[in-house]
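Student: Send me a single protein entry containing the residue sequence and its fold in token form, directly below this note:

Tutor:
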Amino acid sequence: MRDGYFDQDRMRALIEEVVTRARQHGFPRTRFVTHMEWALEGRVGMPALLEYEAKANHGRMRDDDPVICTYDLTKFGGGIVVDIMRTHPMLIIGGSLYENPFFVPPEEFLPELHTRRVSEETPQ
């Protein structure tokens, strides 16, 4: 949230910078745990958050540096939680790690998200 707003490209660049610096200092792996309640502060729309989460699968998540996005399920609505789950290939529920049967690859999820966004913006 540099400068008070979320920019997904800047966030991805920051993650890459952290990993690069860690490797330069001899750390072979960086573990990220992100608390996602910041998304409820109104600085980013939910479609932008979902896009960021889906695109994360093209980068850091396929490498050796684990990323864990934590969501307080009492603060996010059911619809958004389902979509968030669809962007992650693995889920931790109740302390156990599961392969996510609801995962949708980014190349499928992002066009669906775009279509939804356009239909929501189009006057009926």
Q: What stands out?
A: The first helix runs from residue 8 to 24.
